[in-house]
Amino acid sequence: MTSIELVLARTVLRGLLPYPDLVRRIRVRRSARALATRALWPRAEASVTGEDYARLALLRLLSLQRETRRAVQTRQRESAALLARTAVETCILGLWCLHVPDAVGRLRASEIRVAPAMLTFLSSVGVIPDALIRQSVMALGEPGKLPDVRSMTEQIDSKTGSTLAIYLYDLAYRPASHYFTHATSSALLRHVTAEYRYSVRPARSWVRRSPVRLADACVGLLAAAVANSRAVPAELFLRYGERHAERVLPPLLAIVGRGIARKLGVSELVATLKEAKATRDYLSRVVHDVEPEEREARLRSMYDTLIARLNFDDLPPGAMEPIVDYFVAKVLGEWEAERTSRLSRQTVTAEPDEA
Length: 355
Prior knowledge:
The chain is an all-alpha fold. It folds into two domains: 14-249, no CATH class; 258-354. The protein is built from 15 helices and no strands. It has helices spanning 3-16, 22-37, 50-73, 77-99, 103-118, 120-124, 130-138, 149-160, 164-181, 185-189, 210-229, 235-245, 251-285, 292-310, 321-354. The chain is globular, with a radius of gyration of 27 Å.
């Protein structure tokens, strides 16, 4: 198998197979709750720190983790996806509060900014004039705006030197927003079946276990960050978060996988796998004097057959060509590297015999 096939196979299997962790989850939740509540909330507003807000975010995550698991267990797929998205946003906000020095001030300023809109209903029903509401809110301080979630992830990773926050954002937050939260074209088209019929129930755009694993990962990752800020051992939280994060199957991969399975069917899927195996066998046994064009043509033939079987009627001509070009170059490059390494090993083995 090529590295691409191995990565895809490992990602899909991790996302689909069960991962029992009841004992570890109980330990993590108990330790995280103790970590978040070990100190009282400061009485003086000026004494509130970013770590205090991060601890609140951790408590919020523990609640979202429980609710997401309940939604998954009762097969409330839409609710589970929305809860998992909220968990990612809460995790990112908690990390942002830990690592950005002026986070507390900006949180307060954002509350002042939205306060007039929250109180608009009072003026709408004639209880308090709108001008009076705005005058009272202005006395609380200067309003401000929080950065968007993407900007938060960039700030977090620039402070920590990692790519963890952006990984969570790209893996789940943005896709979940697109398919479940916002009224996008993709979200609406989930109500059109493969036979172009309307359906009240939307198509499943995520595998069942992914939302709860995402919430589990968020708890572990934020708990580890809070533990580090307090100089408390964080290995339990970090290992828990990483192991669950790597088992979250991205929504787009789930959608593509279901579409391929529906279009191919069992017989065509078996035929495709046989052809892929025959192509791998051909590449593994071809001799050095075979023209590179012949190897490339054989590989492209396999991909062209697969695309024809999938019958992507809704894609414009040429849309798949760059992807096929990339896979062909990748596979041939790996084949050439493996062949060179094999020849090198054979040469080293043969030299002592000749001596």
